[in-house]
Amino acid sequence: MLPSYDGSVPRVGVVTDSTAAGPLAASPNLRVVPLTIIAGGDEFPDSGSAVSARVLAALGEGLPVSTSQPSAQAFAAAYREAAKTCDTVVSVHISGGLSGTVHAAALAASAADVPVTVVDSRTAGAGLAVAATAALRAADLGGSAASVTQAALRAARASVTYFAVGSMEHLRRGGRITRAQAVVGSALGVRPVLILRDGKIEVDHIARSRMGAQRRLVDVVERPLQRQGDWSLIAYHCADPSSVEPLAAALRDRFGLPVSIVDVGGVLGAHVGPGLTGVAVVPGA
Questions:
Q1: For 116-135, what is the mean pLDDT?
Q2: Are residues 147 and 182 in the same domain?
Q3: Are 96 and 21 in contact (CB under 8 A)?
């Protein structure tokens, strides 16, 4: 159990966004600002357990699906709420290379009632979730804004994410990869394995089949696990947990570590499309 906050230093609030895929503490000191999904003309927030299934259903029907960063007004509202109990805020968000979310947060921060430090995590999904969790833990221990920020950045930088997708087309349409990368990944029905590195998505390996992609996802995990420290594994899916169970089982068998199974959520699901399987190596508790 964490020691209670004693009020000897300014209280730090933590804000993140809905692309943080993974368990987040139900804390009054944490606020999550949802991004927006537009599917077939309908607009809805990226929140709730059924959102990713709704996104995949729209994609399956051939409906156009896009996403939008939160407005500066949405961040301003979150900062006003945080200011009721906190003296300063650390706002930790999805990579600026993937979304304009950090820019909207920075705009709202410039007019906030309390000092706000906006952090570009240079990651997303589980990497962002562990960064926000690390920030919250540091804040609950009474850390300063600077120490809370550093805790978030350390966790984000230590996290590594690999994933395979059924098609590169959704990533290309959303501008998350180049047309050339999409062409390579679509050739001859291959299944590309991608890495989220330095805030951007890059091709790590071209597998010849779904099973080949799974083997690669297991093999590449060995590299980050060789680093000193305690690590946790998170297996990704999008509205289809059974699809990632074979990968989770292979990871458990290979490394003897528990593997959490996590839905990436609606926004990330809209950009990767159907058929996602992935794994994140993140700092342990």
A1: 97
A2: no
A3: no
